[in-house]
Design goal:
The chain is an alpha/beta fold. It contains eight helices and 13 strands. The chain has an eight-stranded mixed beta sheet with strand order 5-4-3-2-1-11-12-13, with helices on both faces.
Amino acid sequence: MSLNKIPEIKLIALDMDGTLLNDDHLVSDRVRQAIYEAQAKGIHVVLSTGRSLAACEEYAKDLKLTSYLITGNGSEIWHVSGELVERNLLKTDLIEMLYKLKHEHRADHWASSVDRVWRNDMPEDLFSREWLKFGFQIEDDTVRQTLFDLLSKHDELEVTNSSLTNIEINAAGVNKAVALAKLCSKLDCQMENTLAIGDSLNDMAMIKEAGIGVAMGNAQDALIKEADWVSSSNNEDGVAKAIYRFALKPVS
């Protein structure tokens, strides 16, 4: 899009790791102030993360957010009050297949069920749980790319990452952009009125479909190529700079 005319921003979607949070997993004072000012202006500020609810709700409370949370890359949508708005499950037979691949490739893994996150561990009966997401952590570039390419061909899977050394898998059609569009319909807002900020492939869909998609200065190259604008890094208040530029002090 052309940045000569900035749309009115009514909703800001923020990835967390590598975006909202600096490398110490903290929200800087400047980023915090920008979020407060945006909310005071009536803009909805939404965390849009690969994390589970349990791993992000304290941040939402600390920032005094008043809107919604997109968790698990869009597998769940929550209101900050704790109300579950939507849940999109990953079939257990697919979890079973992914778990076998973990052993074949000797990878570390994590998996999110609706009640907890499993790390290099799984319940004896996979079918005793409902599943949201599966992730691989693979340091070997060749092994990781081979597995990424294999999984990307599976029509029941949505395959992304949240760092250069992992792979994240959701059910096909489950991503942050789809969740963001659903929130727009709830909040009487259009996608063109959204500002989305992220750093990894699990942010790609929302970066491309938001009214303004911003990549962090530390973002993966693929995301930077698709973004409307590139901010500074997560250690340099990149989120605050984007909020001030596009939501609080539009240049149009």
